[in-house]
Design goal:
The protein has about 650 residues and is of the alpha/beta class. It is built from 27 helices and 16 strands.
């Protein structure tokens, strides 16, 4: 029978359910989040809700926020996916959060606070995290006192992508520790006329990320976990929409939940589809057979060609494994464990310290049932079968092998700009560029030396300081500290013994590196990376472009040599277009076989996740694909430049 109008009873469009949605199912998380918000326990300062997509995080937030509003608590919502760039500096990250926060305050306060925020941010020369804390505590909270404030931060995994999660969580941890004691500076305030403490601020973090990737051990001590479970009880709100399907909707719902495993989105979807579409010959006696046939035909069969709601849900699960932020090797291990869970007749134990267990749970593909793991629901078990798992594993393995062939076991040269401008101190910083660079280089060197699949990119790096029109001074940095300078010793052995000098001439040093490689390990088939750190345009740019043409012509193909230039400092950050123009100019060259030879890329230090990310992108890019050659941040921050070059 066809049920007219019943499908609108359910929510399948994605996003949060409306406050008055009759099909909302309350879970334990509703009470846990509400009680956390009202708690005066000083250790309950931060909570986190980390779960797969479409598990009801947004609906939970909206519903509990509505209850808290009625209690006189101000709820602020910040979505890191909206209004924040793909790449963002620490300074802009904290200021953007405060800007969004001010915009959600009462209208009589928000405009003035936005002006004060801009003035405060310009005039106080302290770290961005401290600015964030002080403005929130000393400017914003007094404006809303005695109201409490709950700040919900969604898509928190973006902070991990930006490399800012450690900074942000360390700030909250320190703040919580400070708040656990009574002082004038503590976030806890004595309520006027009352004996107890008043806690005006809490944070709730929501997202799709493994807890141990987001939170350090110290952060776990101040963060309360709120778990989002599947629908297991209190499912009566789903019944009303099925009233026109059968005289016994409870039997139909029971069978629907058997197939969905109580997954919030799938349960809403299947209820809606059953209510809207015709189920032939449905009786109370054949509910199991009828629903099974319906699910296989309407949901499972050819799922990739179904409507967008169905396809996108299953694609999100798949995307966690094909494109997820975790290491490919880790995803392959998770899929191997999934194979065991899928085929095993015995339960597989959940091990919280085992990354592949957490990976599977956060993906939504597997659910934790007590101390054991199982495929989340029967629909997933049919769609994400062993054939699917093997295909994804094979694809990931091939990608890993391709990267190993092109990335690992390279000769690596690092060239550091030693020009006079490296002695400048950028706005909001306390160290000069020359003083700040060693810390970043230590991390980059350790990444280059890190073992991957039993291999490394390199075990030593030839390190040059370039400035005048001659070959720069050379050092060698080793992964083994017994051999000489190690990453930890770069600052003391190189930077503290040498100082910024004069110009930015790079070609003599580049030529020395090239000749060293070509006359040496290239003959053994070893490829090379040259990584350049600079805070300004090259003084010998015309010679550099000619050198690039000549070098490409000497190569058999573009995989042999990759040159990465990383810009640092305010001068480059504020005007990167000359460097982007340089990038395009030198990437139209040809190798000795007259094939396109894209061996050069430019990026900003503040925009990359780490050195491995930019190396991987350079290796994987097609030489004639403009959209992959140019970093993503360029398209957002310089759309006119991007569009102009795209049309060329």
């Amino acid at each position: 029978m066809t049920i007219s109008g019943q499908s609108s009873y359910y929510q399948i469009q994605g996003g949060a359910l409306p406050i008055d949605a009759p099909s909302y199912v309350e879970r334990q998380a509703d009470g846990d989040l509400y009680n956390f918000a009202l708690s005066e326990n000083p250790r309950e300062f931060v909570s986190y809700i980390l779960a797969a997509r479409q598990m009801g995080k947004s609906s939970l937030r909206v519903r509990v926020s509505h209850r808290l509003d009625q209690e006189g608590i101000l709820c602020i919502f910040i979505d890191l996916q909206s209004g924040f760039d793909d790449q963002i500096s620490e300074d802009r990250f904290y200021k953007n959060i405060l800007h969004v926060l001010c915009g959600q305050l009462p209208s009589d306060k928000k405009h003035k606070l936005k002006e004060e925020l801009n003035d405060f941010w310009k005039n106080f020369d302290i770290s961005p995290g401290i600015k964030f804390k002080e403005f929130l505590q000393d400017w914003i909270l007094p404006q809303v006192y005695p109201k409490r404030v709950i700040i919900f931060i969604d898509e928190v995994q973006k902070s991990l992508h930006w490399g800012l999660s450690n900074s942000f969580l360390a700030l909250l941890r320190g703040w919580a520790d400070e708040s656990s004691v009574t002082s004038e500076d503590a976030i806890f305030k004595k309520a006027e006329g009352e004996g107890g403490l008043h806690q005006p601020l809490k944070f709730v973090l929501l997202g799709v990320v493994k807890p141990y990737d987001l939170l350090t051990q110290g952060a776990f001590n101040i963060a309360k976990a709120i778990e989002l479970e599947n629908f297991t009880k209190n499912t009566e709100p789903l019944l009303a929409g099925l009233s026109g399907v059968t005289e016994e909707p409870d039997k139909v719902l029971k069978e629907i939940l058997r197939w969905t495993g109580g997954n919030p989105f799938l349960s809403q979807l299947l209820c809606s589809t059953v209510a809207r579409e015709k189920i032939e010959n449905l009786t109370s006696e054949n509910v199991e057979e009828a629903i099974e046939k319906f699910v296989r035909e309407r949901i499972i069969r050819n799922w990739r060609s179904k409507d967008s709601q169905r396809q996108s849900h299953f694609s999100e699960v798949e995307r966690w494994f094909t494109q997820g932020y975790t290491d490919k090797t880790e995803r392959i291990k998770a899929l191997k464990l999934y194979d065991r869970i899928w085929r095993s007749s015995k339960p597989i134990k959940f091990e919280p310290n085992r990354p592949e267990c957490i990976n599977l749970v956060i993906s939504g593909l597997v659910s934790r049932k007590g101390q054991y793991l199982d495929v989340a629901n029967l629909i997933y078990k049919q769609i994400f079968d062993r054939k699917w798992s093997n295909e994804v594993q094979q694809s990931l393995t091939t990608q890993e092998e391709d990267i190993e062939k092109t990335m690992l076991n390279r000769k690596v040269y690092i060239l550091i700009d030693r020009s006079a401008t490296m002695d400048r101190t950028d706005k909001g910083k306390t160290k000069t560029r020359w003083e700040a660079l060693p810390e970043m280089l230590e991390g980059d060197l350790k990444n280059l030396f890190r073992v991957r699949g039993g291999k490394t990119i390199c075990n030593e790096v030839d390190f040059y300081l370039f400035s005048r029109d001659r070959v720069g001074r050379k050092f060698t940095v080793y992964s083994d500290p017994k051999k000489g300078i190690s990453p930890e010793k770069v600052q003391g052995n190189i930077f503290e013994e040498n100082f910024p000098d004069s110009n930015t001439y790079i070609v003599p040093t580049l030529e020395r590196c090239k000749q060293d490689w070509m006359q040496g390990v290239r003959k053994e088939g070893k490829k090379a990376f040259i990584i350049i750190y600079t805070d300004g345009m090259l003084d010998d740019r015309p010679e550099f472009e000619k050198w690039m043409i000549k070098t490409c012509y000497e190569l058999d193909n573009q995989e042999e040599l990759k040159i990465i230039m990383l810009g640092l400092g305010d001068d480059v950050d504020n005007d990167p277009l000359p460097f982007l123009d340089l990038d395009l100019n030198v990437n139209a060259n040809r190798d000795k076989r007259k094939q396109l030879c894209n061996i050069f890329t430019f990026d900003l230090v503040n925009q990359i996740e780490d050195i491995i990310e930019v190396i991987s992108r350079q290796i994987e890019n097609e030489p004639d694909d403009f959209e992959t050659i140019i970093p993503k941040w360029v398209k957002k921050q310089y759309p006119d430049w991007y569009k102009g070059h795209l049309e060329r």
